[in-house]
Amino acid sequence: MGIAERKERDKLSMRQAVLDAAMELYHEKGIEALTLRAVAERIEFSPATIYLYFKDKDEIVFHLYSMAFAKFYQKQLEVNSIADPLERLRQGCRDYIEWGVQNPKLYDLMFILEVPMNVIAEENCQDIGKTSFAELQNLMVECIAADKLKIKDPELAAIMCWNMIHGITSLLIKKRIVIPHEAVPQMTNAVLDTFFVLVAK
Amino acid sequence: MGIAERKERDKLSMRQAVLDAAMELYHEKGIEALTLRAVAERIEFSPATIYLYFKDKDEIVFHLYSMAFAKFYQKQLEVNSIADPLERLRQGCRDYIEWGVQNPKLYDLMFILEVPMNVIAEENCQDIGKTSFAELQNLMVECIAADKLKIKDPELAAIMCWNMIHGITSLLIKKRIVIPHEAVPQMTNAVLDTFFVLVAK
DNA sequence: CCTAGGAACTGAACAGTGTTTAGTTTGTTA
DNA sequence: TAACAAACTAAACACTGTTCAGTTCCTAGG
C-alpha cells in the first residue's frame, strides 16, 4: 500500500522542483526574471500546474526567503563553539556581514526585499527570522550576565547591534558606500572594532 | 510672439500635472497603485499622452525620487539652526529616521532601490548621495573639533552613524523589526539615545 | 479485467501592467 | 483657406499573476 506514500513523495518532489527552479532563476537573472511562466517552462509544466502545489507566487517567494535563511542560520551556528559570549557575538557579527557581502542576492531576500510577510501571518510556521533575532537577544543576555556590555537591556542591545551590522551590509550591497572591493574587510573590521570598543565594558 | 512661450508653459504644466498626479496617487495608495493608466485617468488624458512628456515610467519615478530628496534635504536643513554640533547631529538623526519611516517608499527609492538611478545622468544622483554623506562627515568634523565624540576619525564616525540610522530605518520599513506602529518613536528614541550615550563624550 | 471516479494537468482566457504605433483631431502659419 | 505640424488617442503588443473548464491518466472497487 505504498501508492499514497509515493504520491506524497511526488507531491513533495514537485514542490521542491518548483522551488529549485525558482531559486535558480533568481540566482541567474534576479528577481525581475522570477516569473511563474519562466519557472513553469524550466520544469516543463504549464504555469497553471504550479497553482496545484502553491497558493500563489508569494508563497513561493516566501519559501525562497526561508531557504536563504536556513543557509544563513547554518553559518551562524558555527560560532557556538566560541565560549566567551562577547567573542561569540563579535565573530557572529563578522560572519553576518561577510555572509551578506558574499551572498548579496540571498541577503536581499532575507533583509531587504519586500518579502510577502502576510504569508507568515497566515500560516502557523514560525518565522525563522524571528528565531534568529531571538538567538541574538539570548546572546546579549549572556553578555550582560557576564557583565561585558554597557547596555543592560538585551533587546535594545540586540537591536542596536543588528542595526549596525545590517546598516553596513545593506549599504555595501546597495553600493551606497562605494569603496574598492578589497577594502571592504578592512572597513567592516574598523566599524565592528569601533562598535565593540563603544559597547563593550 | 507669445505662442511659443505659451506652448513651453503648457508643456511644463503638463509635465507637472503628470508628476503631481503621480505623487498624489503614490501618497494615497502607495507605489503599487502608481500605474500610468491611473495617472492618465486622473489628469484625464490617454496613457499614451504621458509618453509625449516622459520617456517612460522610470523617468517619472525618478522625478518622484528627486522630489523626495528635495523634501528630505529641506527637512535636514532645518537642524542647521541648532548651534551645538552634537545636538544638531542628534536631531538630524531623529529627523532622518522619522522621515524614512513616514515616507517608506520614497526612502526606498533614495537609499535602497537602485532602479531609477539608471534613468538620468548617473553622476547627479551619485553626487546627491556623496554630498549628503560629505555633509554628515563635516558635521562629524565639527563634533570632533568640539571634543564631543569618542571616535576621532570623522569618516569612521559618519559611517558608524549612517549604518545605525539606515539600519534601523530600513529594518523598520522592510518590516524585519515588527513592533506596533505607535511604539516606533519610543523604540527609535531608545536606540538613538543609547547610540549617543555610547558615542558622545 | 473493467469501469467509475478522482487526481493531475493544461490551453485558453481574464484582468492587469508598461509601451508602441498608426491614425485622427486640433491649432498655427503661409 | 490650404498645408503642415503638433497634440492626442484607440488599439494593439508583449508581458505579468491567476483562474477555470476541459482533457488525460491513474487507481480503487466491483
Question: How is this structure best described in words?
Answer:
The structure is a homodimer of 201-residue chains. With 201 residues, chain A is mainly α. Chain A has 2 domains: 1-54, Homeodomain-like (Arc Repressor Mutant, subunit A); 65-199, Orthogonal Bundle (Tetracycline Repressor, domain 2). The first copy, chain A, is built from 10 helices and no strands. The first copy, chain A, has helices spanning 3-29, 36-42, 47-50, 57-77, 85-102, 104-112, 117-122, 128-145, 154-173, 184-199. In chain A, helix 5 runs parallel beside helix 9 and helix 5 packs antiparallel against helix 10 (184-199). Chain A is elongated, with a radius of gyration of 20 Å. The N and C termini of chain A lie far apart (64 Å). Residues 121-125 of chain A have low confidence and may be disordered. The A-B interface holds A 111-115, 117, 129-130, 150-151, 156, 159-160, 162-168, 170-171, 174-177, 187, 190-191, 194-195, 198-199 and B 111-112, 114, 129, 150-151, 156, 159-160, 162-168, 170-171, 174-178, 187, 190-191, 194-195, 197-199. The first copy, chain A, binds a DNA duplex (30 and 30 nucleotides) through residues 3, 7, 35-37, 45-49, 51-52, 56-57.
Describe the secondary-structure layout.
2 copies of one chain form a homodimer.
Chain A: H1 3-29, H2 36-42, H3 47-50, H4 57-77, H5 85-102, H6 104-112, H7 117-122, H8 128-145, H9 154-173, H10 184-199
Chain A binds a DNA duplex (30 and 30 nucleotides) through residues 3, 7, 35-37, 45-49, 51-52, 56-57.
